[in-house]
Batch of 2 targets.
Target 1
Amino acid sequence: MPRFAPTAITGLGSLSGAGLTLPESMESMFRGERHPHPPTRFSTDHPVSYLVLELRDSFKLPLDESENIYSRTCQLAFVAALEALTQAGWDSETLRGKRVGVCIGTTVGCALNSDDFYRAYKEGSHPDIRIMQRFMRSNPAAVIARQLRLDGPVQSVVNACSSGTDAIGIGASWLRADACDIVIAGGADELLRLTYSGFSSLMITDSQPCRPFDVSRKGLNLGEGAGLLVLESEAVRGEKELLGTVLGYGSACDAYHLTAPHPDGVGLKLALNEAFTAAGVTPADIAFVNAHGTGTPDNDRVEGRVLSEVLPGVPFLSTKGYTGHTLGAAGGIEAAFTVAFLQRGEIPANIGFTDPDPELLSTPVTGNTVIDGTIALSESLAFGGNNAVLIFGKGDH
Amino acid sequence: MRIGIQGVGLTGGFGSGVDSLQAALQSGKVVTQQREALHNGEVDIYPAYLASLDRLEEFIPKRALRRIDHCSRMTLLAAHLALQDAGMPESERSRIGVIIASGYGPLQTTCDFLDSYLDFGYACSSPTHFSNSVHNAAAAHLSMQLKTTAPSLTVTQFEMSVPSALLTAQQWLIEGRVDRLLFGAVDEQCEVLRYCRRQFFAAGEQGPLQPLAFSTQSAVVGEGAVFLLLTRDEVAAYGHIDEVRLGNHSVAPLSLSDDDLLILGADGHKECGRWYTQAARGHEVAAYAPFYGSFPAAAGFDLAVAALSLRDNRLYPGLASTGASTLTAATPGELNGRKLACLKFGSAGEYGLTRMSR
């Protein structure tokens, strides 16, 4: 695996339960705010109400408020894309004639998972076929490309909860291959009854605010949102402000279990090693780690052990206490956060953590913490045994 | 850098294995199966190209297949057939990368999961169906069966899933992320999909499939899985992938080389047909969807047909029902060193062009 040239980041966009824009999310996280609550967009007959982090009520879907034409996931992706493109100085007009790729990670955004449609079908009636037409229109990467009339590679990555991280790594590789000049990359996912029920069935959701890496952690809080980056070739970027760089990407599969991580973190260690090699850096160069940190017993045990073994003493945090676990969006949102933290020179507290787990040799940061360094790492673990790691460098400021 | 195709494995309406595909291409015969679906008291009888799993137990014990769904089973069979075709011993499989393209993912398992809570209440949601309903479950099962810890990726882009995923596969090999890669495509048929297609297309789903009759809706549903074992080697058992290009013809028109001999991903969907007539005018074309049916992953079968044609130095004939066309149907026979290009269009003008050579 060779070392790669850094890829320029010129735009960042994010929306989640932490905030409707990246600056708003940053401010709320550094104020230590979080707003988990029972789901309001759907109901179930679950005997226990698990907490989630939804977008604020004031959020309006930009393309189709009634969600008849495009799925919510696609519209979340589009909002984050517009925020990132605006920061990078692009719009649909100035992008015309450029080779622009779109690589978006998602989990539910590409699944035929409408329970309203399926319930009607099961009951023998004729379900509203417009729901199916919406599904066929609602591939997140394709929607961004069509809305902005882009010409270039388009890909929706469905690697479960590492999808957003993988999408950014893949998008950067397209620039290296000269398959395009600009890439919009990241992740998006909406909150659905289907995922709420699925994660509940696995008994890894929490009825209290989640507690990543805490000894009393019980599970995750689901969330929704999108996080996207604009990546540019140096030829296109020119003198434009550099917000950060993608220095390295690595991924590996545990080949162990469909939903549980390998107890020794085999795949995560391989992914870390590949990312270090690609970036040409060592663990000693890492200023902080934005961990996956879902708050489930298994994930945090494995991740905590690997962090203490591979990156001993390096400050780390999980931002899922602020955003919830946004599944395919998580890697994109956390990538945007990681670059923004590097710019700010500070990381927020790992909210929800109070008591260390004696099984883990290291603990996350418990307050807003000034960081020392210019390189940071964001990692994602996923169903299917996928592990993905991105290493970012600080930009001009 | 060219990517070598060292092995092909597949299962579809024509049978399982590259020999079955070759036999179908040589004989010009594939028989669709008649399926029945009951909805609202009405029996719906329709033709379909359905995959066979008869050979799966050659590779994986029955016991190990418990809790593995149909989509993943097709995946496992096709991937093992590709490894067998390439003559790759088990000792060399632990660092094989996996990339899978799927237009719809595990449809039936998603329905099974919905059944679990719609029938029995949310507290009875099935964790097994949920964990198998994620799109990358098939890739995960494959990595676990092969015990490969190399990178794994699943891509879904409806009709464009295959060329989109192939671009990343090519890049992984070029950059040295993996030395060998199982590149696959899979989609399954299920009754809900049939219901939807019937609502959309009505009698246009009854066949016969006429891929070059672009003004006629003639799609016939299919399912299957196909895998290519790819390496960076200059010596390739089948041929090479020279270029993968993606774009949107409606934004920046696709320009083809004068000598491009095109294998079209046309599969009887009228909505996509107009793009082929625009972009491929003046070129010799062939289309093979009547051998495996209409489904997003079928673009992977087009790659397999191209690989087989390059290996055998022979352009295989399409079926007689290919249909009248405004384009020039290529003459079957020896290729004599000619290159092939697989062209797939989506409904909004998105295209994927894969150039291949011996």
Target 2
Amino acid sequence: MGESDSLSDPRTDRTMTTPTEHSAQHTLPGLDRALDDLAHKAPVGAHDPTLFSRSMRAHRTRRAWTSAALAVLVIGLASVTGLAALTRAPSSIQPAGSSTPAGLPSVVQRVSPYLAGTNGEPWEAAAVLVEAPRATGAGALIGRTGTGILAVSTAGEYRFLDLPDDWTGADSGGLLDLSPDGRRVALWVTGETSGAPYDADQSTVGVAVLDLTTGAVTRQAVDTEHGLDPGEVRWADDDRVVWSYTQIAGGPEIADDLVQVSGDSSGTLVWDVDAGTVDRISDQVPVAVGTERVVVQGRGRWGTCIDLTSGSQQRVRTADGGFWLGNSEAVVLGEDCAQGWNYTSMLPGRFQVTRADGSVTTHPGAPRLVWPLTLTASTATWWGPRRGDQAATIGRLWSVDLATDEATEILRVPGGRGLVGVATDLVDLPTIEAQDPGSPVPLPWFTAAGAGVLLLGLGLLLRGRARARAAAAGGTGA
Amino acid sequence: MRGSETPDSFTEFVVARREALLRTATMLTGDPHDAEDLVQVALARCVPRWSRIEDDPEPYVRTVLVRENVTRWRRRRWRETTVTTLLEPDAAPDHAGALGEVDALRRALAGLAPKQRAVVVLRYVEDLPEDEVAHLLGVRRGTVKSQAHDGLKRLRALLDQTGEKVSV
């Protein structure tokens, strides 16, 4: 017994003494007898002859109620979970018929935040992408929503767009672009860097293309030590992505000083997605991207318009003299290297066209715009007004006759939701009536139902215990 | 499982061992009423398994008894009920000397944690070997040894504090 040395086993030694320093005054020789005395204070009485039968009855009662509670829990929770999965399954949305003509919807309706997502599975080409509240993850169970990307397919079906897990996310400057035919989405992706990453969680390392019709993702990674500062990623046609970036010159220590420490620029890169080739067509960054053309930054207000098919180059006046550098979304490149842009600011403003010869026209009678999308010699389409404009709660896609400034509404997006992308091949086609997006049952309802089942099961358990106690005490327990 | 008719083996066991169980329970709880209740509950818990343990029910019943006492102690502590009843002397002691000893010991035992108390009772009152105590309590033999050592040490200290001498 170790130190108990002085506290020997009362059964074997029959004496207990305190440690040496106290043994003189605190001897406890009678502990064993005292223990025996205490033990013999135990009550004495006849046993209860009904104990067995009462206990059995209580046991059976408890078992019956516990079984009932478990049955309620299993069946109830399985039903709730099954219903939740069933009502949220994409298959609950009617697929569009093959005879449905492709087109832009005239209105992008408000949808339930619980609408199904594409989930990386093959779907359809998207006609339009807009921001919309979406409930995802654990927060969805209690109705919490974030910003999602709602897609309306070229056949009019609604779905939330699920992008690859390594998408940098809109908050990290990861702009994305929908191809003119709506089949593919180009985006920035994160990944491993060879050195200390600028952002441990979100270092951009390349671009990727998601094919909505197959669910396949093709990536184009860049060797980078600390990560990339994303520049442009725009479709020049249905197969080629124009992109640019700047190498970040340091790790996390330069997080607040990006501009001063930016490293090498990529120039203008063209990725032919199907061929898998990347060509650097200029040392300068792109300032405008259009159908099979790109304008790269030159000196002062001049730039170079490059034909991606023939490779021919043309010196052109840039729309903004460099103001829009790195923000080619604000400029649309049309035929003959003409550039249309919002010359006022990032807020809704007037549309101005700068032709290759340097001539400039404005269109004061046309609706204000935020984002120009297409430009030909006679017409232009643009998006505006949207959030940020105090007066506007509905965003519209306009087609404007540049000779008369007469505008035709192509598409409406109520609810102040921002436009993410449009399949520009469809802007000249007749709009279609989109399908009913459906109303999936909100997940919190299922959460509440699940909680109700749990409470019911718990109630049954407690009830069973009470009944069992009653049975044990001599009641029927029924 | 058989019907609710009391099997002879159960009756025989209870008649033969109830008193011993009550003694152990009294030591564990420090209170005769609690002890009676504890034995009743322990036996009731054994009833559904009786057909499987009837050949040698004692170890199982004692295990249930000891563990049920720990459970009840935890439940009481959670409900913040005090254990003052454990410390009160008998209303009608046989004689002053015995009262002092028994009462001091009861108080000291009540000061031990339930598992420690169980180790002391099983090891030194029931005189069970360490292996069996470990089996009953569901702990390792080493734990029984250390708990017995610590339990006696604490018991001694508590008896010292009461100032009541446990005389021969």
